[in-house]
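Annex B. Sample input.
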Amino acid sequence: MGLSNAQYDEIMRQYDRRREENRHRAEESLALVHRMVSGYRDLENEIAAVYAEATKKYLSGDEEAHVAAKQRAHDLIEQKNVLLTAAGLSADFLIPRYNCPDCRDTGYIDRQKCHCLKQAIINVLYQQSGIRMMLEKENFAHLEYGYHSGEHLTRFQNAVAKCRKFCEQFSDSYSRGCQNLYLYGTVGTGKTFLSACVAKHLIDGGYSVIYYTASDLFDTLSAHAFDYKKKDEFQELRGDLSTCDLLIIDDLGTEPPSNFSSSQLFVCLNSRHLHRKATIISTNLSLEEVNARYADRIFSRIFANFELLHLSGADIRIQKKRSREQKGTINVRT
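Annex B, continued. Sample output.
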């Protein structure tokens, strides 16, 4: 994903600090229990002795020793829980607390990146690109309908409803048949805005989201694909593009036409479909222009696997600019 070694190392140092902080909190909690709860330490020692004795018996040929040991240890643990609750503490007071219980703050599950590590990497990239600032302004909380009217308003309202539904059903969107969104239409009608709304909602919900403009996406892939020194980075980038929870490709069609970009787009869409991962595409091109510009197999993938949302109307950016200018004129006159 274009992350430098130094950036990756810093992220992993954050995981190290997180585990150290959690370990320190756990030690403090245990020390508190030892001070407050009479008899708790004795039960801990007894549990350790039970397992030590069971190990000796097992090594001596008693293969059933562990069964009795587990039952005895279970009873002692129950006694520990009774002591905790009697002292006004919850039974799970000493259970380790993790920022991410799935990977236990290691960043990896079975040698694969945990969703929390993927999101940490994406957050760094977002910080570099400035998209985080965009999401603070472009989200569902800032929706405005006043720049649309008539059939254009109806289309925009429909697209908003579909995007909200997409977010609400995201965890099982593929099984519900609402797996991908394709927003198309004239310039400045809210396609990028709605994509950002979905991105913000899902990022806040802990999902990994990768956002690229089409030109940046294919420039990045090209820079990695044709540099043998970046072969590993290219494979990692392709992997992340295939497996992140949501990929957003904005302004499809603004990239220079080439066989490379067309083939990479197909590989990306096909791979994400096979991984059952959601994609959002926005474009100013009409469906006829998309069909003419890209290979039939790409258009077929889009037409079959995406929900098509058509937006139309006047350019909202121009309308907002005129509105600001009018307000400025009024204020000057006042």
